[in-house]
Amino acid sequence: MNDDAAALKRVIARTDGPVIVAGYAYAGAVVATASDERVKALVYVAALAPDEGETVAQVFYKDETHPKAPQFAPDADGFIWMPDEGFPNAFAQNATDEQIALSRAVQRPIAVKSIQQPAPAPAWKSKPTWYLLAEEDRMINPKTQYFMAERMKATIRSFAVDHTPLLTAPAEDGNEPATHAFSGRPTMELNGSGIGGYGEVKDITRDSSSWASCALWRAPLATSSNRLQYEGARDRSQYERGSRQSTRRSPT
Q: Distance between CA atoms of 167 and 25, rounded to whole angstroms?
């Protein structure tokens, strides 16, 4: 995780002015290292949030796993890959066949050492934090997500989405994206270009995990949306825009 935190620090250093940092999945642990005073808020999207001294693995396995969750084991080089069956069964069970095939093709492994390293004091203890809770997540138990979000004192937005709202949370009536969850500031949207937000997008970094990404916004936030040109996006035409009502409740 140190390498990922260093990469994020370099990206922030290339910006000027206040910024908002967002992380998905494993990258929640990475964005929590963003202690720079110019970082004004953190956004978590179905993300892991270890406290000081905890590891990513500890919070990932805090609660029972879903029956269809994949079984992970490192390869000979100490890297963990998503098994092929993990994509349709748990990673993105609401995705199209095309999206699943693409996810398999472009995945990158995560190093075992990155999920075993104790986390430093997290920035969410001193910065405003927002959390998108994925109610149908089969990778990170929604109960765990709720526990972490409550512990962070985050503003929670809960949706009936799987682990990959970046892929699978479009479109019912053609208005704002299903994951346009954060009323007030910061407001964010997840769309076909990756993660976008209100305000000027300055930069982005991909961490060592195929299942996680960090995004960076300029702040203060504007009133019109600028979409992030996300490096990892391949076929943007497959995504649509849509909306859902947000709720705040404990998952059952």
A: 14
Q: What are phi and psi of 27, to 5 degrees?
A: -65, -10
pTM exceeds 0.70 for this model? yes
Contact (CB, 8 A) for 198 and 225 = yes
Strand 110-111, strand 79-80: pairing: antiparallel
User: What is the mean pLDDT of each successive set of 10 residues along the chain, which is 252 residues long?
Assistant: 89 89 92 93 94 96 93 93 94 93 91 93 95 94 96 93 84 34 38 30 37 47 28 29 34 40
Instruction: Say which amino acid occupies 227.
Output: R
Strands 79-80 and 213-218 come out as unpaired
The 10s digit of each residue's pLDDT in 12-47 is 999 888 989 999 899 999 999 999 999 999 999 999
Cβ atoms 169, 177 nearer than 8 A: yes
Q: What CATH homologous superfamily does 2-238 map to?
A: Alpha/Beta hydrolase fold, catalytic domain (3.40.50.1820)
Helices marked H in the chain = 2-13, 27-31, 56-60, 86, 97-106, 112-116, 142-152, 165-168
